């Protein structure tokens, strides 16, 4: 519904105005609507872009920039999936299976996790092509998510 129709519907019950085409009130409402409709469209777009499940352009890009994982070459659905998984990647149970899930949720695709339970050690080998900033961010996330008692060592492909 356009803002013209919305304003008209609110004024109709009053019975005070003529909405005949070309009347003063009709012209005034059309002028208001001409200015308001683009604003309402922009608000609708901003609302859509605010949520991962409905974002299609800058809403996805800005979130990807925040986590330093911009992936414009992927489909919108895949970008949404990666961002939703990233939101879930906050903790790990300390097992190899848990680290595999956690690293996948962080957007990594080429890695191996070796578990040494007797030594309370996990070795993570990351072969994804990462820049220094991404390596730093992944290392920080792993350190934050890993249980305190566990010795986690991360190795990056050189």
H and E order: HHHHHEEHE
The DSSP helix count reads 6
Low-confidence stretches: none
Report how far the terminal alpha carbons are from each other.
57 Å
Helix percentage: 40-55%
- Gross morphology: rod-shaped
What's the rounded overall pLDDT mean? 87
Verbal overview:
- The chain is mainly alpha-helical.
- Helices cover 51% and strands 11% of the residues.
- It has helices at residues 3-11, 24-49, 58-66, 76-88, 96-105, 132-145; strands at 111-116, 121-126, 151-156.
- The chain has a three-stranded mixed beta sheet with strand order 1-2-3, with helices on one face.
- The termini are far apart.
- The mean pLDDT is 87.
List keywords for this structure.
158 residues, mainly alpha, rod-shaped, 3 strands
Question: Quick recap of the structure?
Answer:
The chain has 158 residues and is mostly helical.
Topology:
Blueprint: H1 3-11, H2 24-49, H3 58-66, H4 76-88, H5 96-105, E1 111-116, E2 121-126, H6 132-145, E3 151-156
Parallel strand pairs: 2-3
Antiparallel strand pairs: 1-2
């Amino acid at each position: 519904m356009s803002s013209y129709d919305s304003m008209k519907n609110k004024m109709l019950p009053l019975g005070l105005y003529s909405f005949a085409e070309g009347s003063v009130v009709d012209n005034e409402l059309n002028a208001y609507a001409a200015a308001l409709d683009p604003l309402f469209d922009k608000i609708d777009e901003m609302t859509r872009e605010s949520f991962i499940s409905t974002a299609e352009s800058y809403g996805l890009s800005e979130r990807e920039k925040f986590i330093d994982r911009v992936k414009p070459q992927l489909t919108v659905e895949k970008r949404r999936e990666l961002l939703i998984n990233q939101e879930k990647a906050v903790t790990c149970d300390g097992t190899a299976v848990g680290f595999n899930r956690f690293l996948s949720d962080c957007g990594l695709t080429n890695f191996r996790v070796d578990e040494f339970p007797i030594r309370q050690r996990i070795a993570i080998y990351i072969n994804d092509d990462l820049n220094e900033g991404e390596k730093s961010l992944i290392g920080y996330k792993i350190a934050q998510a890993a249980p305190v008692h566990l010795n986690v060592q991360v190795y990056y492909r050189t």
